[in-house]
Each structure stands twice: as structure tokens, then as C-alpha cells.
Amino acid sequence: MAFSIGLFLFNLINGYSGQVAVESLTYSLLSVNMTTWVMLAYLLFDVHLDRKKYGSSRQAESLLPYEIGHLYSYTRTSHTAKFYAHFLTYLALGLLTGGLLFAVYYKSSAESGVLLSNGQ
After folding, report:
1. Number of domains in the chain
2. pTM of the complete model beyond 0.70
3. What is residue 16's DSSP assignment?
4. CA-to-CA distance for 10 and 24, rounded, in angstroms?
């Protein structure tokens, strides 16, 4: 979050001219590494349901060893409020951190002569 906010604000100022404040290797491999974790989670938690046995009608759900509605009720009743509190806290911290990183980087690059009016 802090990485993306800082990069977004930096690119807003420099007009998306291709100048990046971070290593391009790290930036390009970030989505590759994160995609691997998503695929691993999908493979570990995927459940196959036989459609011939359980997908023929609405009454076929009673044949399942569990009720599908109970899988959602636990999350809905116990984790939703905690999730929103954590999400909003980390969102605020990410915006603050990204903004500060951008401000420090932009101020240092502006005073070093890269962005001065004389072009040095």
C-alpha cells in the first residue's frame, strides 16, 4: 500500500514520464510473487463438489455433510467488524506512509537540482 501510494503520487507530479523512484526489478516481480501465493491458496482450499450428486436440485444440498450457509455465517458474525477496523486502520497508515515517502523523496529530488527551473 505504501509502495503504490508513493509511486502513484510521484508519477502524478512527473507526468507519468517513465521515471520511477524504485528498482524496476522489484516492481516487476512483485505481482509475479504475489500471484504465486494466490494460486497456492486456491489449490489448498479448493473443494470439489460432485455436480451429479449435489448439483441436481436445491434439495440436493441436504445431502452434503455440511450446510453451505454455515460456512459464511461464521465469518459474517465474528470477523466482519474486526476486518473493517483493521482494514481502515491499515488504509489510513498506508496513505500516511505513502504520502510521507512521496514528500521526502520529492523534496530531496527537487532540491538536488533534478527538478529546478534551470534544468540542472
Report:
1. 1
2. no
3. T
4. 15
